[in-house]
Amino acid sequence: MQYVTASGKPKHWSNIADGGGFVHPTFKSKLVRLIERLSGPEYADSIPSSSISKLKTLVPEIEDINPSQIDVSYEEELGLLNRLKGAIEDLSGENWDWWPLKPRMRPLSPGSARLHWRCSCGEESWEEVSAIFARELQHLSKQTFTPSTAHNPPSVQVSSTLIPQNVDVGEGLMAFTAQSSSSIRQAATFPADNPPMASIGVTIPSVTNVNTTDTAKYIFLGVTAGDDLLLAQMEVHNHDDDRFFQVLRENYHRLRGVFREWLGIWKFSHCDFVKFEKSGDNEIVSRGPGIPDENNTMYHYTPKPALMPPISDRTFRHRFYTCRRRSLFCYFHKCRRPCRGSREALDRIPKRIWRLEEEGNAWELFWGLHAVERISVLKTAAYHLIVLLPSFIFWFLWLFDWGHSGDLQNGSILFLCSLGLMSTVWSWFPLLKKQVL
């Protein structure tokens, strides 16, 4: 079933539950209408389509924030530490994970502004947006949103005259469920003479009369391990967001391996939505960003057509590192609570209705998630400390315990040699990366 607006246009990504926010306008409904207006032809030259997609992805992150607590800045003076982070990232050609420091804040491009807000977990977040959207958002923040209209959709009361008195509610609900299940089965039936993606020669198993309410659904996770791309097929039937991200984390750690997990300097950042290609026996490669077409009945997701990306990098990172139990790390950051019962993130991820045959020589295209990793500044600093610590201890003993209190030059030779070797390694890092790519 496709919802349409009053003008007859499909209503793909806006919230239908609150009636579009026309009767009881909420902060979210006003954001949705604002972005729909900015995506019109009159703003096509000022705001590119990529910025509109980013704004649509941003709505779920700020919809529950008090509008008056969202700050807007058009010019910012970046500090010395932020410039140092930028120099390191530019030199290495990589995006770094700066925890326990704040992430790098890039300079604003012309015609842009930066939104600042604090999410429910207490973490400060920001996003670069169009200056036109920022000014409109400042205008929205001056309006008053009561808690009932800003965060909770108004309750809908149904008159008893709309329900016949002689109809049993349970029987009516069962009849509606049976009718809905029948409609879903009909929608999931593939034409025998024109199977999906047959025009490009992709091998697709024949599937007919699939009951999507009872069929297990699978999300594919690709993790790069050296030169190989390892795949996990995660069954997500009857999962909520909390359970899904728990399964995602377990499969990511399993595919990455113990040694890479504990000894590597790379750390999980987020997942990209990509198209995979299977060309041989367990031979899987990424074919770049992508998401199944909305008419592809093999995959289920909402809304349709999907945003790109359907889930922001920040949301992926927050859900992945949710604290499920108290630990020592809880004293160094504010724990993020699990989203139990919610399926908002899981519904946006494409889910296929059958598993992938990884073995065999059949060629096939499929869509899923590809784990993206960043260099951890904490692990990198720990390795630097381990390399420099023996020479520093030697320097200390040379000066204060072995009777060479005035001989700074000879005592510092090992330390300076170790420092020089590390500088040489870092100077070769961009060249090694280009050779790998």
Structural overview:
With 437 residues, this protein is of the alpha+beta class. 37% of the residues lie in helices and 17% in strands. It has helices at 27-38, 49-62, 80-92, 131-141, 147-150, 169-187, 241-256, 258-263, 313-320, 344-348, 377-400, 408-411, 413-436, and strands at residues 71-73, 96-97, 112-118, 124-130, 218-225, 228-235, 266-280, 283-289, 299-300, 351-352, 364-376. The model is unreliable at 1-21 and 146-213 (pLDDT under 50).
Please tag this protein with its features.
437 residues; alpha+beta; six-stranded mixed sheet; three-stranded antiparallel sheet; 11 strands; 37% helix; globular; disordered N terminus
Using the alpha-carbon principal axes, give the shape.
Answer: globular
What number is the mean pLDDT?
75
Strand content: 15-25%
**What is the ordering of alpha helices and beta strands?**
HHEHEEEHHHEEHHEEEHHEEHHH
What's the story with the biggest beta sheet? 6 strands, mixed
Terminal-residue CA separation: 45 Å
Percent of residues in helical segments?
Answer: 25-40%
Q: Helical element count?
A: 13
